[in-house]
């Protein structure tokens, strides 16, 4: 492999950075060698506590039992809002940029406080108490952030479901965590297209016995269905509440939120994060990885429905007292210069997005950049999937005018915050590498037998020690938590990613090694798409794999066997694609349906996905050993149908 380019740390960044190269090394060493002392100092420095903790950390990866700052008491909303008021009541907390380029709004910390308190009081008036689950199915409006913080304020556990998920997917998530309240909007708006959120909620709630009330925020004002004894307009209830609300004193280990994410098997898992450790990880990583400086404007383009929208749109920036941009729209509306226009309009200093968006914008052509200056930008970031060096270079040279370091942040819903990441003032960057571990993060590369690989090596990425932002469980399913993450390599948290370490100790994520596909930075379990396909009456069997896709990173490639007598037609392909969108949502849209009257199976009936991946990649030369197949001729048949 040819050696990658190295971009040194900028002198301008070094001048004000929180962490120089020397400091990184010293802090990193201490974070491993004297871990509890390190984390205790960080927790004192970065958060306000009502009561100190009894124990810094206590965990056992063999039993999947993890606790940080147990006995400590704090409130996340207090840390994200109230503690800033003495100094920054009039500072902008949120800049909302509408889908319509003429719509934007500045919300101060004082206003944020008042709005969150009103909603928190409204929720209490609906009977929501500490520990209750509240589902948020929201567009990117300020109320989405208010709702997360209002839950945190009263100790309710939020479960944000991405607005692009279907009614069926929403129902499954509401039922799994038995949400009492759903907060939604009449409609969302993306690229001038209305998204029928309330309609989807109505459909989902045809089968959700736990839901008592639905609070509906008016966004587009279009008419929606209504059920008087269940549905409540947000403005009718919330706008008249008191603007103060005493925060609930939460134990550090009380749950803060649940977020569903795809795994290699079964239905999506309710990843559960708790209060103290998660907030510390969010706060610290935000400050250090974006090298955030007082007064800067920060923009993370992620939707609140993903973990990035939790940690780096809401909790990380607000806990640091930063100004965070909430963008309702899409990168290509009204045209492909929208991101850069918004950067200029709001003088954005720190910009964080996904490689898939960069590839799409790069493909649209540089003329969309040339009408903007982007002169305010200081730091750029990426997240969600490996960034190909070509997109990295474009981001660096064109978007950042060669003035801005890029932080490529590797992490997961389960890790709570960034784990492998260059620090802008400390780490020379190599395009395509997430580079070095964050404080307290110990990494191991394991071979398939679980042996630890030393030095330059490629293997399965695993983590032998806990960090504060680690997920604490799969909601209501401790057994699944252990099985999914700790059973594969005893004593390790297994990430599901493959990774290479180079001669300089830099880490290069190579992608998932399990049956998870990363589509445009969104995780999709192959099993989920397969289950959706086989629900269709014409489908007998389905096998789904990922394949390389220029814009999305990976696309969804579905092999489908039909019931006897069904006709393998193009019309049916189109219908199956529609069917999957309806079952899961547009994020799961198959890119290719490949008719498979037979699937390559071992004699024990196991589908050989390795072969299906190769065919999907158009790589027939290296199909490997097919002799264990029950019927090797199906492979030739599949290839002939490509
Ligand atoms: C934050 C987030 C997690 C999976 C992860 C990995 C991939 C995320 C990456 C990256 C290479 C990066 N991933 N960031 N791969 N470089 N900088 O995306 O969480 O949705 O749970 O996805 O995404 O494969 O395991 P999540």
From TrEMBL:
Residues engaged in binding Mg(2+): 534, 536, 539
Matches recorded under Pfam families: ACAS_N (PF16177), AMP-binding (PF00501), AMP-binding_C (PF13193)
UniProt record, GO biological process: acetyl-CoA biosynthetic process from acetate
Domain of life the protein comes from: Bacteria
Cellular component per GO, a single term: cytosol
Positions annotated to bind ATP: 384-386, 408-413, 497, 512, 523
Modified residues (N6-acetyllysine): 606
Molecular function terms from GO: acetate-CoA ligase activity; AMP binding; ATP binding; metal ion binding
Reaction(s) the record says it catalyses: acetate + ATP + CoA = acetyl-CoA + AMP + diphosphate
EC number: 6.2.1.1
Post-translational modification: Acetylated. Deacetylation by the SIR2-homolog deacetylase activates the enzyme.
Cofactor(s) this protein cannot do without: Mg(2+)
Biological role: Catalyzes the conversion of acetate into acetyl-CoA (AcCoA), an essential intermediate at the junction of anabolic and catabolic pathways. AcsA undergoes a two-step reaction. In the first half reaction, AcsA combines acetate with ATP to form acetyl-adenylate (AcAMP) intermediate. In the second half reaction, it can then transfer the acetyl group from AcAMP to the sulfhydryl group of CoA, forming the product AcCoA.
NCBIfam families per UniProt: Ac_CoA_lig_AcsA, PRK00174.1
The protein, known as: Acetyl-coenzyme A synthetase
């Amino acid at each position: 492999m040819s050696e990658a380019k190295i971009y040194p740390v900028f002198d301008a960044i070094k001048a004000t950075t929180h962490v120089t190269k020397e400091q990184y090394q010293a802090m990193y060493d201490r974070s491993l060698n004297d871990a509890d002392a390190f984390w205790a100092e960080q927790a004192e420095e970065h958060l306000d506590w009502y009561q100190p903790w009894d124990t810094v950390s206590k965990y056992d990866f063999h039993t999947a039992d993890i606790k940080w700052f147990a006995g400590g008491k704090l409130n996340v909303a207090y840390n994200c809002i109230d503690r800033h008021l003495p100094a920054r009541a009039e500072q902008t907390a949120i800049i909302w940029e509408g889908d319509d380029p003429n719509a934007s709004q500045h919300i101060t910390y004082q206003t944020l406080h008042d709005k969150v308190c009103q909603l928190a009081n409204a929720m209490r008036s609906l009977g929501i108490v500490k520990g209750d689950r509240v589902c948020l199915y929201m567009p990117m409006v300020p109320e989405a952030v208010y709702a997360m913080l209002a839950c945190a304020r009263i100790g309710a556990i939020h479960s944000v479901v991405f607005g692009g998920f279907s009614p069926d997917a929403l129902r499954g998530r509401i039922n799994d965590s038995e949400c009492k309240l759903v907060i939604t909007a009449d409609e969302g708006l993306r690229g001038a297209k209305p998204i029928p959120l309330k309609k989807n909620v109505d459909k989902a709630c045809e089968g959700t016995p736990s839901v008592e009330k639905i609070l509906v925020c008016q966004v587009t004002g279009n008419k929606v269905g209504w059920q008087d004894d269940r549905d409540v307009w947000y403005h009718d209830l919330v706008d008249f509440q008191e603007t103060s609300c005493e925060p609930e004193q939460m134990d550090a280990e009380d749950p803060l939120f649940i977020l569903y994410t795809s795994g290699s098997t079964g239905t999506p898992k309710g990843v559960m994060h708790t209060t103290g450790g998660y907030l510390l990880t969010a706060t610290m990583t935000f400050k250090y990885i974006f090298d955030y400086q007082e007064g800067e404007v920060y923009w993370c383009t992620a939707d609140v429905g993903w973990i990035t929208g939790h940690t780096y749109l809401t909790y990380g920036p607000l806990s640091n007292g930063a100004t965070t941009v909430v963008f309702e729209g899409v990168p290509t509306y009204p045209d492909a210069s929208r991101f850069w226009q918004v950067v200029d309009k709001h003088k954005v200093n720190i910009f964080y997005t996904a490689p898939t968006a960069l590839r799409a914008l790069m493909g649209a052509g540089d003329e969309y950049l040339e009408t903007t200056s982007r002169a305010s930008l200081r730091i750029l970031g990426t997240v969600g999937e490996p960034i190909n060096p070509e997109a990295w270079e474009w981001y660096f040279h064109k978007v950042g005018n060669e003035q801005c370091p890029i932080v490529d942040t590797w992490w997961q819903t389960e890790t709570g915050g960034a784990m492998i990441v260059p620090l802008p003032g400390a780490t020379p960057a190599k395009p395509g590498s997430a580079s070095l571990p964050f404080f307290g993060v110990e990494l191991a590369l394991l071979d398939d037998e679980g042996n630890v690989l030393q030095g330059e090596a490629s293997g399965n990425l695993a983590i032998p020690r806990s960090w504060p932002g680690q997920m604490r469980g799969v909601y209501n399913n401790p057994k699944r938590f252990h099985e999914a993450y700790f059973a594969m390599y005893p004593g390790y948290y297994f990430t599901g990613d493959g990774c290479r370490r180079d001669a300089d100790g830099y880490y290069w994520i190579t992608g998932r090694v399990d049956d998870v596909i990363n589509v445009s930075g969104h995780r999709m379990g192959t099993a989920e798409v397969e289950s959706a396909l086989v629900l269709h009456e014409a489908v007998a069997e389905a096998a789904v794999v990922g394949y390389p896709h220029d814009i999305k990173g990976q696309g969804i490639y579905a092999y489908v066997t039909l019931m006897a007598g069904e006709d393998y037609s193009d019309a049916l392909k189109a219908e199956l694609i529609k069917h999957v969108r309806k079952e899961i949502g547009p994020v799961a849209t198959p890119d290719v349906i490949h008719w498979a009257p037979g699937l390559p199976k071992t004699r024990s009936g196991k589908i050989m996905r390795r072969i299906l991946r190769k065919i999907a990649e158009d790589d027939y030369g290296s199909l490997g050993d097919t002799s264990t197949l029950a019927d090797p001729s199906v492979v030739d048949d599949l290839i002939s149908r490509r």
